[in-house]
Design a protein that fits this description.
Strand content: 25-35%
Distance between the termini: 24 Å
Shape: globular
Radius of gyration: 19 Å
Order of helices and strands: EHEEEEEEEEEEEEEEEEEEEEEEEEHH
Number of domains: 2
Oligomer: single chain
Strand order of the largest sheet: 1-2-5-8-11-14-17-20-23-25
Number of helices: 3
């Protein structure tokens, strides 16, 4: 489980090595006087990264609790944001709508590693507010061993091609949502209501896909799903919603039906909701909704292969060597 002292990622993994893509500049953010270049992450972005940047800039964030809201504007691509070994925590406590996130990435070509983004909103029997830890709307974005902590709408995967590797994602209601074309690999998905009092079932995903020709969708590979509360795997935010779980470990937090049609009852034939080679007590599909799909060999190849998000090789253009989905 996530801890504010650091995320839950495996600290013994192979260290990431530099690639031939060079880093043009390094910036250090530290709350320790006299140690870093800036005391806040936003100042490092605003003042340390030039407009229309075309070369990778490394912003290293020393361990600490950073109470700020971070916005990476569209005009500042090629930022590599890296936390200390145990993870550097950024938190934002104000309640608000989905566009008021702790981290908002509007630029393309963004990389974050070992960062923790946390957001809290109200959640009780009478009232629930959105609390977005991260909003990711640029293209060619990767998060490596990061953590996203919230309750409702934790991770707004707005749109674009995104890769989440060994990340921790915590929430309860639609906490991975949006219209991103994204792969979540080796991630820990945690259902937690904390002390919020709700005893009903939550929902892990709310993926939006408006047409059968849209290339987007959420693919979860080799993930672990567990926690304190029960939930469905997903419900549609759009009529052609697409979510696939592959070789993932489900604890008993997954309700037997698995999925819900939400406001699209009668249009279930349009969804692409599928599980393939998953295991654990929550992976029993005997009581799943009858409209859950079974992937054909070609569909499995298209969705689970490297080409789903990386057909043009963008994952090879980062300043550290990344695994491929």
């Amino acid at each position: 489980m996530f801890s504010e002292k650091g995320n839950n990622v495996d600290q013994n993994v192979e260290p990431w090595v530099p690639t031939t893509t060079s880093i043009s500049k390094q910036i250090i953010v530290s709350q320790q006087p006299g140690y870093g270049n800036y005391t806040t992450i936003q100042a490092a972005i605003d003042q340390g990264v030039p407009e229309n940047n075309a070369q990778w800039i490394h912003i290293f964030v020393t361990a600490g609790y950073y109470g700020e809201q971070i916005i990476v504007p569209e005009s500042k691509p090629y930022i590599f944001l890296e936390g200390d070994r145990g993870g550097s925590l950024v938190y934002f406590n104000c309640s608000g709508d989905i566009f008021n996130a702790t981290l908002s990435v509007k630029a393309n070509n963004f990389l974050a590693k070992k960062m923790i983004f946390k957001r809290r909103g109200q959640y009780d029997y009478k009232e629930r507010t959105q609390a977005v830890a991260a909003s990711v709307e640029g293209d060619k974005i990767a998060f490596i061993q990061c953590a996203f902590v919230g309750v409702q709408d934790t991770l707004f995967d707005v749109g674009g091609r995104h890769y989440f590797y060994q990340c921790y994602i915590e929430g309860y209601v639609d906490f991975i949502f949006g219209r991103g074309q994204s792969v979540y690999e080796g991630c820990h998905i945690y259902l937690s209501t904390g002390d919020y009092g709700n005893t009903g079932a939550g929902s892990i995903t709310a993926q939006r896909r408006d047409s059968g020709n849209d290339p987007n969708g959420f693919v979860f590979k080799h993930c672990t799903v567990d926690g304190k509360a029960q939930a469905i795997l997903g419900r549609p935010w759009g009529p052609y919603s697409r979510v696939v779980f592959f070789q993932s470990n489900f604890s008993d937090v997954i309700v037997p039906a698995g999925w819900d049609a939400w406001t699209y009852v009668g249009q279930e034939y349009k969804f692409m909701y599928a599980e393939m080679n998953c295991y654990g007590p929550g992976a029993n599909r005997s009581q799943r909704v009858k409209w859950e799909k079974h992937l054909t060999q070609q569909q499995a190849k298209d969705l689970l292969g490297n080409g789903f998000i990386n057909s043009d090789g963008w994952l090879d253009q980062f300043p550290i060597k990344l695994p491929h989905p």
